[in-house]
Amino acid sequence: MKFGIVVFPGSWSQQDFHHVIVDVLKEEACYLWHKEADLQGSDCVILPGGFAHGDYLRTGAIARFSPVMREVARFADKGGLVLGSCNGFQILTEAGLLPGALLRNDCLHYRCKWVHLRVESQRTPFTSAMHRWQVVRMPISHGEGRFYIDQAAWRRLVDNDQIVFRYCNGSGELTREANPNGSLDHVAGVCNDRRNVLGLMPHPERAAEAILGSDDGRLMFASILDAFARA
Amino acid sequence: MFTAKIYVTLKPGVLDAQGDTVKSALETLGFKGVEDVRIGKFLVIRLDGDAKEQAKAQVEEMCRRLLANPVIEDYSYELEGAGG
Q: How large is the ipTM?
């Protein structure tokens, strides 16, 4: 399976994704420079974390207009798998490929720490190897991760089972202390209504080897590989 | 030539964590009666041309497509300068 990792000026997680895909999973990966409107035959497109275009104006606001994003939108429209982590999630919301927006953390601090996530839906190609209510551990590293959406749109997310991850404590409880950024309804990750585009603030690529503290992120890659094998 | 003064603000229902922090700082300094602080963005854009309606349409489109995110923000603007 071939993964295409989009690189914007200011991206910083692309090499971590590349390492996991090539060195750990033994799959194929290529970098996709944002100015080139060519996905090079990728089977899954990844938008990594970072600070694309310096996060100027708003996070992801400038990146969404990069030539590569037209191709990413076309790819997603055809049912292709698109995963956005951290800044990648912010870009996908700005591009309208995912609902909602990411605001400044309520604590105003940049939060760089391990968090627990509760799997709210395993009905996605990114979470099929997990089970519902499973608690997984991944790091976050962001200053603007507070998910927000208006009440009516939030209702639609809940009804359509589009909230994929929520911040929780180690026992899976949605306590106030477990929410690192003040996200609405503890939302850490959502998918589109077609379920082929996923965005999450945590970093699965930094939790894919036990030596780094957790390999729960591997479950996401295993899900993607499984979805590809079935397609 | 026109000058557009554009204000981008968080929608009323959206928590403004920075604004709340500034409010408590003002209270710490002893300012009384500060009911609310909202922080937004102020942009000044100079535009070529002399057709005001055209300039207005352009600013409107800039706000809609890039300068504000309709999920979380509202915008307003003033257009200054001479022209028909």
A: 0.87
